[in-house]
From TrEMBL, chain A:
GO terms for biological process: response to zinc ion; transmembrane transport. Pfam families: ABC-3. It comes from Billgrantia gudaonensis. InterPro entries: ABC_BtuC-like, ABC_TroCD. This is Manganese/zinc/iron transport system permease protein.
Automatic annotation (TrEMBL), chain B:
Belongs to the ABC transporter superfamily. Residues 13-245 form the ABC transporter domain. This is Manganese/zinc/iron transport system ATP-binding protein. SMART domains: AAA. InterPro entries: AAA+_ATPase, ABC_transporter-like_ATP-bd, ABC_transporter-like_CS, Metal_Ion_Import_ABC, P-loop_NTPase. Keywords: ATP-binding, Nucleotide-binding, Transport. The keyword Nucleotide-binding applies. The keyword Transport applies. GO terms for molecular function: ATP binding; ATP hydrolysis activity. PROSITE patterns: ABC_TRANSPORTER_1, ABC_TRANSPORTER_2.
Amino acid sequence: MSDFFMFSLVPLAVAVVIGMTCALLGNFLVLRRQSLIGDAISHVALPGIVASFILTGMLASGAMMLGAGVSALVTVVMIELIRRLGRVEVSAAMGVTFTSLFALGVLLLEWHDAAGVHLDVEHALYGNLESLIWFEGTGPYALFDPLALAELPPQLARVVLVGGLVVAFVAVFRRHLVLGSFDADFAASVRARPALVDLLLVSLVAVAAIAAFEAVGSIIVIAMFICPAAAARLMTDRLGAQIAWSQGFAVVASVLGYVLAGYGPGWLGFDASLSAAGMIATVAGLLLLATCLWGRRRHPAEA
Amino acid sequence: MMGDSEAIVQSPLAIRGLTVSYAHRPVVHSVDFVTPPGSMTAIVGPNGAGKSTLLKAVLGITRRLTGEVRVFGQPVEAMSRHVAYVPQRSSVDWDFPATVIDVVTMGLFRDLRWWQPTRHRHRQRALESLSRVGMEAFADRQIGQLSGGQQQRVFLARALIQQAALTILDEPFAGVDAATEKAIVEVLKQLKREGRTLLCVHHDLATVRDYFDHVLLLNVRRIADGPVEEAFTAANLQATYGGRLSPMQLVRLMEPVAQGESRGE
């Protein structure tokens, strides 16, 4: 039991909070057919973080967040520039932007590795969910012990803060988001500021992606922006219900993925464990596959 | 500056020197137009004449390069509450997860602050708007299940709920059947009887005389405007369409509408 509190509680909580946060924003990305933007932003966090390492020479999370934030802004601007100057579709512009910037990040990383500091591509992709150990978490009573709680890994507080920010944003701007997603012209005509809300949405996607990236790597972020919301869309035709489904799917994927990664190989007789982030993303993908096959709303309505 | 003449103060939409350009090419060039209050005005012109762009620039959807837009003599930015907009039906994704009544209540956007839930009385207002367009039975229907004509009527209901002095419509009859067209025209004429003003991009030259009392002929620039009998002339139409209308067409368009056998039925 003490194992659970020390080794599993925090990673599980972080995974669930990040999953729900990304899935909540993902609903609006899916409705706007902008799912790829989450993918793009979480990829380009890498060069930003590496650049901030190289500039500051340390693993300070403040500098990392700043670096990732700057590169997220660069991405949004770059996508827009490529789309306008190249006159290509937005998805093509995103594809070009995030692959090239991620590649730049990998090159920077290798150069950085030569300097002998630990940070690698694997870490960037899969994060270090399993390393979020709560050393003071020796049992359930630790949950009520201020001293033990003070020793919680800081990533947990950070993702909870970002999660709260995202929930507040969606609650306050829910009508703006819905109106802008469904009919941006009408939204502009009633002064709902669709362009501004769009920018806020992308900024929050960047904030969520960066906070999650640091804790759990980019794979899980990409999966959680797309899979739960897309799967939820296949379950219902009501937006409220879709959001509820997406939150449920995010929790199921996080918990099931974590448990399967930790204990699955053991059940099969192998003495090993798998990457929790990788398994969570896989479960999220399988949930989407399942709703594609059996979802109630898998065929768009005949107009 | 636009003068504060009587006509401009009374007009729900007065435009002066409005220019919009895409990639350094003017799409709408220096258009002046004063919408007569209580009128039902058609904006007529060939494809690419800038009709939709003119409306979008007026509504603040597209940025205008130059020009002034006034609503009852005040800048439109402060007065946009008095203007309702019915976009082209094809401009949105109808597979969006929303019901008919959800879409109509979107018209109440300005009346609802973020902490206010959508209440029974808002639903009631939405149902009233829907019944005016004969769609109350569809309130809880998924919007993806509607026909084109039904979609158009839902969009109209969303504008009705705004109770605006001026309603701007972008091709409300595009892709709807004759019965729906007739139903929509009846709703618009009812609005006009209530003293509201309608401004409508319209494509079917044959029905201009039946439906509208004023017309704005547009081809990037304003070609002519005024009451239909005065401005909707063969000469003005040829100027608007660059001489591409056949003499036969023009003769037919100039015939006064015979009572009881109006077109579009």
